TrEMBL record:
The keyword Ligase does not apply. One of its GO terms (molecular function) is monooxygenase activity. It comes from the Eukaryota. This is Cytochrome P450. It comes from Pyricularia oryzae (strain P131) (Rice blast fungus). Gene3D superfamilies: Cytochrome P450. Its cofactor is heme. The chain crosses the membrane at residues 6-26. It holds the Pfam family p450.
Length: 188
């Protein structure tokens, strides 16, 4: 009788676990995002995205996905990547979508997150309105020579560090503070 109770308990636990998994799968595939093309596993997990971010190669996954599935791709249960100029304009200018918490987590300063890290609607709206003239396509196109100059200066800095001791560089590489360097490039 005790063996029967144990078997029945294990069977009930397994049935519950299976039902939970089936419910999760059905929920993932019934989502409004289910019509957006992407890999079969996208509705089920974000592990591939986490791996891509942690290795710094998320761009490769995104690029491959856009080539395979088109300009709008679902890469996670709640992650949609857009590479279409008109769709981006619609999303960024016309549609009021809430920003996800990930942006505030990435922000360097929690108390003053800036446009990128601000997820509250009103402060983000004010910042966006204030900064929007500086981000028109025409304005940014005119800045290309400045971008090239500052990036060339950064690359020259790295080259001079590598040329200072080529033997050590081939063995150890060079040490850089990329966040600080990119911050300085952005300020330049």
């Amino acid at each position: 009788m005790a063996v029967f109770s144990v078997v029945l308990g294990v069977a009930a636990m397994l049935a519950t676990m299976i039902l939970i998994q089936v419910r999760g799968i059905l929920k993932a595939y019934r989502s409004p995002l289910s019509r957006i093309p992407g890999p079969w596993y996208a509705p089920l997990t974000t592990m591939h995205l986490r791996w891509g971010f942690s290795t710094g190669e998320i761009w490769k996954l995104v690029e491959r996905s856009h080539k395979a599935y088109g300009p709008i791709v679902r890469l996670g249960p709640r992650q949609v990547w857009v590479a279409d100029k008109d769709a981006l304009k619609e999303i960024l200018v016309k549609v009021d979508l809430p920003k996800v918490a990930m942006y505030s987590e990435i922000s360097r300063d929690k108390h003053s997150p800036g446009l990128f890290g601000e997820i509250r609607y009103e402060p983000h709206k004010r910042l966006k309105r204030f900064l929007s003239p500086a981000f028109t396509v025409a304005y940014i196109d005119n800045l290309e020579k400045y971008f090239q100059k500052t990036m060339r200066e950064l690359l020259n800095k790295y080259e001079s560090q590598m040329n200072a001791d080529p033997g050590a560089v081939s063995f150890n590489g060079i040490e850089v503070d990329l966040m600080d360097d990119l911050h300085n490039v952005a300020l330049d």
